Amino acid sequence: MIDTAIFLGAGASKAEGAPLQGDLFRDYFSSTVFKNSAAVMDRELADFFRDMFHIDVTRPDVTTINFPTFEEVLSLHNSCC
User: Fold this and answer.
1) CA 81/CA 79 separation, integer angstroms
2) 38-61 pLDDT, tens per residue?
3) For residues 30 and 8, what is the distance between their CA atoms, to the nearest angstrom?
């Protein structure tokens, strides 16, 4: 058996139906999984986006928000803590 992994850039991935980075946040925060969650982690994540990016992920029109990329979110760790 041959194990194969194929990595595609954003253009190829998007063309095949995969979401872009910002879309991942948008999809999650607009999902019923997030909206119905009582998990502490989800509340902390919502607080993080509010405090660091001034984004209210609980608002009804969350699908219109321009979310940061993963790199922008992860880079805050080194600059804020």
Assistant:
1) 6
2) 999 999 999 999 999 999 999 999
3) 26
